[in-house]
Each structure stands twice: as C-alpha cells, then as structure tokens.
C-alpha cells in the first residue's frame, strides 16, 4: 500500500459548489475509484487560501496503469468536466499533473 497526498487550489467563489458536488459523489465515480485500487480517500479544504488536500491509499501494483484506466472511464470524464473548472492547479505542479503530488515526510501508525 502506498499513501498519496495531492494539493490543488479552488477557484474564488467555488467552495459551495465543490462541497455540494462532493456531498453526493456519483456512484459510478466511486465505483471506478475502488476499481482502480484506491481506498481511504479524503479531500480536505483549507480556507481562506482555498486549497484542497487529497489523501488516499493506493493498493495496486501499477499506479500509472490504474490512473489511465480511471481517465478512460466515461463517467469519470463527465465528473471531471464538472469539477475541474472549479479547481485552480498550482503553478508549481510538475509537468502533466493537475493535482500537485506531495512528498510524504512523516508517518506513524
């Protein structure tokens, strides 16, 4: 299992809509997340900076392949089309990232 953290900004005025959407995530999106070996997924909001922090645990063996499988899913694409305009990617993210990956610097069970 690999713990993963990601961060992204949220557009001004988008907080209420983002919370509304995530209060009732589409069942097909949730199913695809599970199908791609992702568990224990949480998203946190930090105001007033409007930063979203996502944490999840990857239980598969090929994250790139599972990410590609998720990206090919039609329902996930529709969900992203709704959510992505609300998000504001960080200027410092790596090439090809939407949510910026983070380095884990501490963990204890």
TrEMBL record:
Domain of life: Bacteria
Signal peptide (from-to): none
Protein name: L-rhamnose mutarotase
Species of provenance: Kaistia terrae
């Amino acid at each position: 299992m690999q713990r993963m953290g990601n961060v992204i900004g949220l557009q001004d005025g988008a907080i209420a809509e983002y919370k509304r959407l995530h209060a009732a995530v589409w069942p097909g999106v949730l199913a695809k997340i599970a199908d791609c070996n992702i568990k224990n997924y949480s998203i946190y909001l930090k105001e007033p900076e409007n930063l979203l922090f996502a944490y999840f645990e990857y239980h598969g063996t090929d994250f790139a392949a599972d990410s590609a499988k998720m990206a090919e899913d039609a329902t996930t694409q529709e969900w992203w089309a709704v959510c992505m305009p609300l998000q504001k990617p960080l200027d410092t993210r790596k090439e090809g990232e939407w949510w910026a990956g983070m380095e884990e610097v501490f963990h204890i069970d």
